[in-house]
Amino acid sequence: MAWDGRVRNNRGMSMTTSTPSVVPAAPATLVREPVRIEIPSNVGSTEKTFEVRKIGFDSPTFDVMGGCSRHEIRIHEHGFVALVDAMPRLVPQGQTADAAIVQAARVSYGQGTKKVNEDRGLIRYLLRHRHTTPLEMLEFKFHVSMPIFIARQWIRHRTASVNEYSARYSIVPDRFYKPSIDEVRKQSSSNRQGGEERFTSDAAAAPNEARTAEEFLRYLDDAEKMYERYDALTKQGVSRELARIALPVSVYTEWYWKCDLHNILRFLSLRMDSHAQQEIRVYAEAMYALLQPIVPLTMEAFRDYELQSVRLTRLEIEALRNKSQTIAGDNKREQSEWEAKRGLMGL
Ligand SMILES: Cc1cc2nc3c(=O)[nH]c(=O)nc-3n(C[C@H](O)[C@H](O)[C@H](O)COP(=O)(O)OP(=O)(O)OC[C@H]3O[C@@H](n4cnc5c(N)ncnc54)[C@H](O)[C@@H]3O)c2cc1C
User: Fold this and answer.
1) Which domain range does residue 278 map to?
2) Residue 32, in any domain of the structure
3) Which residue among 27, 131, 147, 325 has its CA within the 20 to 30 Å range from the CA of 280?
4) Coil, strand or helix at 311
5) The pLDDT of residue 163 is above 70
6) Spacing, Cα 264 to ligand 1 middle (Å)
């Protein structure tokens, strides 16, 4: 079961993410404010006065999250991915959060021009040429609920800051991932890490396949039954940190996950890819859907230059030049990757 495609606000209502709530502009004029503050050091503290220069925006701003505390997409029966904060949160009206990338890039390129189509060109240039640090100026914080086997893949992305639910401190909630019978996948014969083709759940058409798919679901039910014993043993005084160790990896965990936009795009590139496991792909797709209205220019460039682009190796360029259907060498895997790329390019 994929996510239902609806974005909910913190009251659980469906909503659109593009409705801006306008925040009146703070005075754009300079306000000089003397602040007297105690500065501590390892030998005591001294009082100092600083002049804080406060400058508002030139024009009214809007909250990129439309005044909401979360934009949430439900995934499967128990999962969700929710955007809970963004930097920048306030953006001048008429712009998008993409503006923060342009602002950072212009520190290196000078003021330059400021029209939106020029911002788009600059962002596209940055992504094409892998000038990545301006994208690191934006950060997004997500609250995610996912099965532990997905969390194990997700945590490999090391550049995020993570705070996870502690099953040492708290009781693990009774929530398990279980696909429907139509979603039970067969082991792929071409990709050892993957499974794409579904078992036929129609018992009349393919009785063995239907039986196997049903047996798989019973196996998951048996694993879920461990929860009753977990619950009973914690009530009898077994520590939560030990009682949890026999729970299956289909049990849900949750965390806050904060990352900069450059590394989020890297995460999306790897986890929206067809080689990623389907169960993590739906989370990555939901994150894409949450970010797209907030940084539309970046997501457009990401789609054009990364997600739906094809990277060619030297051997593949040679094959293209020679109008050859095969690449040099006898690596079967590389050959089949070349065939897949040829298919994508309509060759
Ligand atoms: C389809 C798929 C299958 C996979 N299969 C396996 C598997 O079988 N076994 C397995 O163990 N893993 C597997 N992985 C995980 C994979 O190897 C990466 O660990 C994971 O995708 C995170 O990628 P990353 O390191 O680029 O991301 P991040 O950790 O988010 O890092 C982003 C970038 O930051 C930089 N960076 C981060 N940390 C460092 C560092 N310490 N030193 C230098 N640069 C750093 C690198 O440029 C890196 O690309 C799989 C991933 C995918 C998508």
Assistant:
1) 1-20+63-177+250-309
2) no
3) 131
4) coil
5) yes
6) 13
